[in-house]
Design goal:
63 residues; globular; mainly beta
Length: 63
């Protein structure tokens, strides 16, 4: 990594260990919105400062 590059905000390897807290389904990473998406639960969990917030009360409902 060069000086001009910033480190990724989220370690994608973490996806292998994380599942939806509501359905236990696989999550997908939305880099643009900085969210982990559970299609099964129709929820998007925010990632703040590189930390996934896996609380249903903090999740955004998908349209």
């Amino acid at each position: 990594m060069t000086e001009d590059e910033t480190p990724p905000l989220f370690d994608r390897r973490m996806l292998e260990a994380l599942v939806c807290p509501l359905t236990q389904a696989v999550l997908t990473y939305d880099a643009e919105k900085q969210e982990l998406v559970s299609r099964a639960a129709a929820l998007a969990f925010p990632i703040r400062d590189g930390i996934p917030i896996m609380l249903v009360s903090e999740a955004r409902t998908l349209d």
